[in-house]
Amino acid sequence: MNHWIRLFALLLISVLIAGCGSAPPAATPTEAPAAPAPTATDTPAAAAPTRTPEALASAPTSTPAAPTADEPPPLRIVTSFQIDSLNPIDDGFWMPEFGVGELMMQFRADGQHYPWLLESIDQIDDTTWELRLREGITFQNGAPLTADVLAALINRQMELSSSAQSNFAAGTSAEATGDLVVTLDTVEPNTGVIPALADEAVFPVYDVATVEAAGENYDQLIGAGIYTGPYSVVSLDDQEMVLERYENYWQGRPALPGVSVRFVTDPQARILAVQNDEADIALYPPTAAKPVVDAQEGIYFNYGTPSTGGFRMVLNIQEPPFNDMAVRQAIIRAINYDELANDVMDGVFGVATGYYPPFFPFAVKNQATDVATAQQLLDEAGWTPGADGVRAKDGTPLEVVLLIYPQQPDLVPISEAIQAQLAELGFAVEIRSVDNINDALTSADEPWDAGLVSAGSVTFGGAPEPVLRRYFATGGDRNYADYSNPRIDALTKELSQTFDPQRRQEILTELQRMKIEEEPYQFFVNFHTGRVIVNERYRDYQPGFALYHVSYQTRPTE
Description:
The protein is α+β, with helices and mostly antiparallel strands. It has 2 domains: 302 residues, D-Maltodextrin-Binding Protein, domain 2; 219 residues, Dipeptide-binding Protein, Domain 3 (Dipeptide-binding Protein, domain 3), CATH 3.10.105. Strand 8 and strand 9 form a beta hairpin. Helix 9 runs antiparallel to helix 11 and helix 15 runs antiparallel to helix 16. The longest helix has 18 residues. It starts with a helix and ends in a 23-residue tail after the last strand.
């Protein structure tokens, strides 16, 4: 559950993808995202030509190596989420975030996908993909990353990982067809292949032989160097993960001697750790901390990295008042999105202008505040104001129970602002906090009319199709109010099998028109941005896109 809260709260972007390319630009010295080193041609996967139309190393010491006179000290990070083990099936998704693991592809803030551990990817036909590895990549234990190893990894993930199984049809398999070439058979057309290769939960690349030799004794993997990233795990307990520089990293010598990642649930304690010089970077700070941090010297609230998600409002369309389409169309126009982002959230959040953030190439800006039209819709539908200002229709008051949850403290001021905005139109909104928002929205025992959920508009790797299937398709596991529209079901299925960019644009445009303009049911009230609190040493550090907190070039500000 922690994984999905993080993924859909903070990040993820999709593009119309078809082929192969070379690496993206290298990160700047204080930039968080990990990236392959630049090459002579700097082309994202989406833009390059395609063939379609479209043995364990000795365990190091348990603390990072001490810095030399000419290098910085180890980086100290505090985070709210605990890493339980090095089991790559259940916990492998953490590793790319802290510079330990890497993926075949990388999804970057320009909305494009780039080869990472791959040199290129070619689509041979609707179900066949050729994956070519870069030369000279080794795991931290010295074992080479070959096509045989990569094929075994893909097949193992397909057998054991629910994330891989949810992204690919049963029977999907990989075979080494060259020393560095793997042929992937997806069984049926799958437009989400490249985003899945960039998804930290699907195919985190690890040394399969070492992992299988350890069995279920995952402590044996500490110090075993099973990943390819710039930093390897040398210790892990319930309080901290300690990393050490991998000297033979394929992109060059990592900038830091090591990294420590401490698990601190209390957000105030994380802020104090930075303030007291016990940490350099605090992840996931509440937005309410910004004015406090801004008033202090030597610590900084840095934000602005785009995210693919935000707080999603879900409407219960099976019960009054939102079984009335006019009320649904009114509420989406009644909310002041600019006020939520810039006044309530102090400019830290992005303004919701549609279902997808505006940096998506297919995003349609069709969501805006229009109070006059909202009033007209309610008036024409027979919702008339009472003496107390609350509208009613046929004896039913326009009352709304809005659910939030304490794991997202930003929801308190946001929900209160929405409550005040809607009151001006005659809504009476009661805010309730529940321990588990997903359980509450799917429980027959919890009365609700609307809920705010931190979620993504696409997957972590940038694919829109799986999110559409979960939230809008009939029977989806996040289709909280049993919404069903045969046209949306058909378009979602077609999108999942359509590679032609023009047709994909047409489908996505129609879907956005239906979801926002015609049949509002779930929509975003804001878009998140990445945010961190840092000390003077890392004052220029910016939050990493897609949760890439550490790269081989991450270092203090000079």
